[in-house]
Design brief:
This protein is α+β, with helices and mostly antiparallel strands. Helices cover 20% and strands 43% of the residues. The protein has a 7-stranded antiparallel beta sheet. Strand 3 and strand 4 form a beta hairpin. The mean pLDDT is 94.
C-alpha cells in the first residue's frame, strides 16, 4: 500500500460524496464494518461523525486504528481504501451540529434532520492508501 499523502487525482476522487464503509476493531480484536459518510479535510485527515451512543465509539477510542473504503458513485470497480489512526475527537454540540451538517450537506444537500441525539466527531490521519480502477497506484 502506498503511504500518505494521497496523490491529487486520488484525493479528488476521495473528496466526492462516495458510498463508503469504515472498519473498526471490537474489544476482542475482531473487525466490524459499517456504512458511513466521510469528508477528506484540507489537512489530509478524514472526518467521521457518529451518534455518541454507538458501541463503535468506545471501541474506536480503545483501538484507534481504522480502515475506510470509498467506492466511486456508479462504478464500484473504482475505489480508494485508506488505513490510519484517529488523532482527534470532538463533541459535535447538539445546537450547532456543524460536523454532521457538513457531511449531510455533502451527501444530501441539507442539514442533518435528527437534532435530538448527541454526535461525536473524529479525525483519521491517513497512513496508507490503496486504489483500484481509476484510482489505481502506479
Amino acid at each position: 500500500m502506498p503511504k500518505a499523502p494521497l496523490p491529487p487525482d486520488v484525493a479528488e476522487l476521495f473528496r466526492r460524496p462516495n458510498p463508503a464503509v469504515v472498519a473498526v476493531l471490537r474489544p476482542d480484536g475482531s473487525p466490524m464494518s459499517v456504512a458511513t459518510w466521510y469528508l477528506l479535510e484540507d489537512d489530509g485527515t478524514v472526518l467521521l461523525n457518529m451518534d455518541a451512543e454507538r458501541a463503535r465509539v468506545s471501541w474506536m477510542r480503545r483501538r484507534p486504528e481504522v480502515a475506510l473504503t470509498a467506492l466511486e458513485e456508479g462504478s464500484w470497480y473504482t475505489h480508494v481504501s485508506i488505513r490510519g489512526r484517529i488523532v482527534r475527537w470532538e463533541e459535535d454540540p447538539e445546537r450547532a451540529m456543524a460536523d454532521i451538517d457538513r457531511l449531510s450537506n455533502l451527501y444530501g444537500g441539507q442539514d442533518y434532520r435528527v437534532r435530538d441525539r448527541r454526535r461525536i466527531s473524529c479525525w483519521v490521519e491517513v497512513s496508507h492508501w490503496h486504489g483500484w480502477g481509476e484510482a489505481k497506484a502506479d
